[in-house]
Amino acid sequence: MPQSFKKYQLSPSRSIFIKLFLIFLGTAFVLVIVIRGFFFLAIDRNHSFKSDLFKNLTKYSVQLVNEIGTPPNRQRANALAKELGLQFRVHSPQQSWTTDSTLPPISSLRVDHTFSNATTQVGQFRRHPFVILNRADTQYVMFFLHRPFGELPAWSFAVLAGLVAMVIAGSYFAVHRLIRPVQWLTKGVNELGKGQFDYHVPVTSSDELGDLSLAFNEMAMQVRDMIQSRDRLLLDVSHELRSPLTRMKVAVEFIGNTQVKENIQREINELEMMVTELLESERLKSQAGYLARVETDLVALAQDVLNDYTSIGPGVELTAAPSTFSLSLDEQRIRVALRNILENALKFSRSEFGPINVRIEKMTNTVSVSVQDFGQGITQEDQAKIFEPFYRVDPSRTRETGGYGLGLSLVKKIMVAHRGNVRVSSKLGKGSTFILEFPIATKQTHINDSEPK
Ligand code: ADP
Q: Does 387 have pLDDT greater than 60?
């Protein structure tokens, strides 16, 4: 499995969910403007509509003025205003009054001259029509106002705000629901990347995203089947090789020439190691071979493994570690993992660059053992493949760097069985750092990081 995925941090501005939600709100907003604009042009700006409207209002206004009488009767005007929901203003040399003190003076009204003449002027005040009738020295103004906003009770605005909030919240949850399969698929891809082929993406819809989820599950199953049959084949071959290897080991004892005998013995030992690693890898997957975990001091364990290598090649040093760190581990398997990593580090290091540097560090949710060498390093491309079984950077096996490319794949399996991980960071020509990460289960750890060793 490739180890170095380029991880993109999903920023809120790049979330498809936020984008969809904003598109939705934007569309609603633009639609309101377009529809409002259409009615504005089709009605408010429509000449014949306005002409008819003002003609009707003028006729009606004449009736109203007749009812108010000459000279104008203020009580009558007030009663009409109340009854019909209109407002009046009257202005003459003798009197000047209005049925609503908030109405503007006649001089500030903007008259629409297209529809006006000497005795009748019309226009709009706050988008509501008005008619001014001139009778002798008296001016009558009729304001055809609907109930102005100011008269609406305060709670009606709260209701409006509530309804708007409900519509926005409704669309938020609808978009969220729609986009959920994308989040599940992202998780599915991540799980698949970690080798969890049994992970199933929920399929809750029969739309395109539902189809994609189905196709994803199908693909995960096919990949799992392929990997299972590959592992099965490896396991079968390994089993078959064990008996001939044992027979060869016995037979080789009868060879007289010690040089030939040693060479064959070395080859047999390597083959035997390969078979053991393959079988061990397989065992880690099965229930019976599941980890034999016990509370173990990781620091003491690492120190113990390191001691075997301090005098080999450039040597090994534990440069930072808590004094103890207790963790539930399968001690033997972690020993194997550490040994594989350390042996590789020594194998690919140059002694002139100083010893292999080992650090044990506690992070928030993990404790890590990092093994840093100053050797040849690994290319970015190879870093993604070295944890696959039988992958070797240099396919030609030499005596010094021998091995079948199984060591790191076994390390990976051991770490995954511990619900941890192994990763590498490396620079060609500068060296590599392999990091074993163990999850910290709060219950089962005890830490004392008073002083580094
Ligand atoms: P092998 O047993 O063949 O070494 P591994 O699985 O342990 O197989 O390693 C796979 C490959 O990764 C090796 O062939 C080697 O090329 C590369 N590798 C592993 N560790 C290091 C390291 N510390 N420095 C450089 N290359 C490494």
A: yes
Compute the distance between CA of residue 408 and CA of residue 341 in angstroms, rounded to an integer: 7
Residue 169 CA to ligand 1 centre (angstroms): 55
Q: Which amino acid is at 204?
A: T
CATH number of 179-290, picked from 3.40.190.10, 1.10.287.130, 3.10.50.40, 3.40.50.2000: 1.10.287.130
Distances in Å between the alpha carbon of 391 and those of 124, 185, 383? Answer: 84, 29, 11
**Rounded to whole angstroms, how far apart are CA atoms 67 and 130?**
18
218-257 residue pLDDT tens:
999 999 999 889 878 888 888 888 889 999 989 998 888 8
Rounded to 10 deg, the angle between the 298-307 and 331-347 helix axes is: 40
Kindly list the protein residues whose Cβ atom lies closer than 6 A to any atom of ligand 1. 340, 344-345, 348, 373, 375-376, 378, 386, 391-394, 403-409, 432
**18 C-alpha to center of ligand 1: Å?**
44
**How far, in Å, CA of 274 to CA of 238, rounded?**
8
Q: Give the span between the Cα atoms of 318 and 34, in whole angstroms.
A: 71
Here the contacts of 156-165 (C-beta below 8 Å, separation 24 or greater) are none
To the question of pTM greater than 0.70 for the whole model, the response is no
* Distance (Å) from CA 401 to ligand 1 centroid: 8
Tens of pLDDT, residues 187-223 = 999 988 877 888 899 998 888 889 999 999 999 999 9
Q: Which of 260, 345, 256, 264 is nearest to 305 (CA)?
A: 345
Ligand 1 pocket mutation pick from 275, 276, 344, 372 by most atoms within 8 angstroms of CB = 344
What CATH architecture applies to the domain 291-448?
2-Layer Sandwich (3.30)
- 318 C-alpha to ligand 1 centroid (Å): 21
**Ligand 1, atom 16: nearest CA belongs to which residue?**
393
Tokens of 58: 């003028």
Provide the residue ranges of all domains of the chain, joining segments of one domain with +: 46-146, 179-290, 291-448
